[in-house]
Amino acid sequence: MLGVVFCLAIAASSPFLPIILGKEWLQVSLILLCLTPLLFAQIALVPLGVGFEARRRMREGIAAQLLLTLFKVVPLVILLSLFKPNFSMAVVAYSLGAGLGYLIYFLILKSTFEARPSM
Questions:
Q1: Which residues, at least 6 apart from 10, have a Cβ–Cβ distance to it below 8 Å?
Q2: How much is the pLDDT for 118?
Q3: How confident is the model at residue 56 (pLDDT cuts 50, 70, 90)?
Q4: 27-36: long-range contacts at Cβ-Cβ below 8 A with a sequence spacing of 24 or more?
Q5: How far is it, in rounded angstroms, from Cα 93 to Cα 83?
Q6: What is the pLDDT of residues 58-92, one digit of tens each?
Q7: CB within 8 A of 84, min separation 6: which ones?
Q8: CB 34, CB 92: distance < 8 Å
Q9: Is 101:68 a contact under the CB 8 Å cutoff?
Q10: Residues 6, 1: Cα–Cα separation, whole Å
Q11: What pTM value is reported for the model?
Q12: Where are the alpha helices (DSSP H) in 1-119?
């Protein structure tokens, strides 16, 4: 619950950063808005990962973690190796990849909870 309050505080304060701290902080407020949904997903999904252990489905849990990591890193590495992006583009690439990774993590987690427990 504390994490959700933290996310809401970040999202709510980001439009005011340029006003309070100056125009140099405009990019920071845009980046905060871009990354806040990912923080929500991380706060919501990662603690549920213990469900893999509770269902005795550790392989699925490891696979979900590996896919999440790959989807967070690979789009950023591809963008950085093929293009010369500015920082904002790199943040957007990371956000999109991580968002897709969290969606896949959720789907694997959901299918694990819907499956019969293994003995």
A1: 32, 36, 39
A2: 56
A3: confident
A4: 27/87, 27/88, 30/88, 31/87, 31/88, 31/91, 34/91, 34/92, 34/95, 35/91, 35/95, 36/7, 36/10, 36/11
A5: 12
A6: 887 888 888 888 998 898 899 889 988 888 888 88
A7: none
A8: yes
A9: yes
A10: 9
A11: 0.70
A12: 2-13, 17-21, 26-45, 50-54, 58-82, 87-114
CA distance 35 to 66: 21
Cα 17 from Cα 19, distance rounded (Å): 5
Q: Is 45 helix (H, G, I), strand (E, B) or coil?
A: helix
Q: Taking the domains of the chain in order of start, what are their residue ranges?
A: 35-114
Q: Are 112 and 57 in contact (CB under 8 A)?
A: yes
pLDDT of the residue at 3: 61
- What's the CA gap between 94 and 79, in Å, rounded? 9
* Residue for token pair 């999202």: 11
The torsion of the CA quartet 115, 97, 69, 11, rounded to 10 degrees, works out to -90
Amino acid at 73: V
Residue 72 amino acid letter = K
